[in-house]
Design brief:
Length: about 300
């Protein structure tokens, strides 16, 4: 179960921290050197563990000047893309489609990959759309109505197809489906998705389970492929199906490749990559990245 997140300012209203812990928290600022970083990260981790015993999670909202700490990624490196007006506009359009899940660096990589692919001749495909966070952000970022390419959006729009989940993982997947339906994270039905994408032309929404719907992608030149089906079998089958249609230099972005709890997807994709003679870049956001080599 995902724990609720609250801001630092709300912690004092929810939990009676000791004076010692309060003092430790107040000392956690941007480090000046690596030794100080190690010490302060240990303090932060101790504080975080203490807070999590109450059922809460501490998350500091990132800025370009403070350490980035969200979506399983903590980094002191530069992330001033968060101040870029084009990024902000695109990210906010994704939030309009699905809500804000604090995926800034993940979406940054999605937008970067889409901008690279936009320099190529080919269409865009997303398998695993849900409410359309990333694809909405990409269309906003690239001014999709100014382009002639088609954006294909494939999803069950009814959660994970349990028939595609390995028997030993099926119960957990069913529980995840129900949890995400209850929370509203998973969309249930395509109508709201159609409405969300109605402002853009050259968009083809294809409901149903992959691989059964792949033949409805009537393009033989694909520049960008995003796989986010939370299930190993359809992701492998989709990558196999589209591999020869990917133009040289095409970008394949794998949303869950390195994400904690999705080892079966990484194992299956690595097995296919080995057969294809390619390598997958494992990204600290939990994503994976493939660039299509020359045919």
């Amino acid at each position: 179960m995902v724990k609720p997140e609250i801001r630092w300012s709300e912690v004092s209203r929810q939990i009676a921290l000791s004076a010692t812990v309060r003092q430790a928290v107040s000392r956690v600022h941007f480090p000046m050197n690596r030794s100080e970083l190690r010490d302060r990260m240990r303090i932060r981790e101790a504080v975080r563990k203490l807070i999590e015993t109450t059922g809460y999670t501490i998350r500091r909202l990132p800025t370009a000047e403070t350490p980035y700490d969200q979506d399983g990624l903590t980094s002191v490196h530069n992330h001033d893309f968060m101040k870029d007006p084009d990024f902000i506009r695109a990210y906010n359009r994704g939030c309009l489609a699905a809500g804000d899940y604090h995926w800034h660096w993940r979406i940054h990589l999605g937008l970067w990959s889409a901008k690279c692919a936009a320099q190529l001749s080919g269409d865009f495909v997303e398998c695993g759309v849900n409410r359309g966070f990333l694809s909405s952000a990409v269309m906003e970022y690239l001014d999709w109505n100014s382009r002639e390419s088609t954006f294909y959006l494939l999803d069950t729009f009814e959660g994970i197809d349990l028939t595609q989940v390995a028997e030993g993982e099926r119960q957990a997947a069913a529980e995840r489906n129900e949890e995400h339906f209850r929370s509203g994270f998973y969309v249930r039905g395509v109508d709201s998705v159609v409405k969300n994408f109605s402002e853009w032309k050259h968009v083809k929404i294809i409901p149903g389970s992959v691989p059964g719907t792949l033949s409805q992608v009537d393009s033989d030149q694909i520049a960008w492929l995003h796989l986010d089906m939370n299930c190993a079998e359809p992701e492998v089958l989709a990558l196999e199906y589209f591999w020869d249609r990917l133009v040289t230099g095409a970008v394949v972005l794998l949303d869950d490749y390195a994400y904690r709890g999705f080892t079966s997807q990484k194992t299956a994709i690595d097995r296919l990559a080995n057969r294809l003679g390619i390598a997958v870049a494992s990204l600290p956001t939990g994503q994976g990245l493939i660039l299509r080599p020359p045919h």
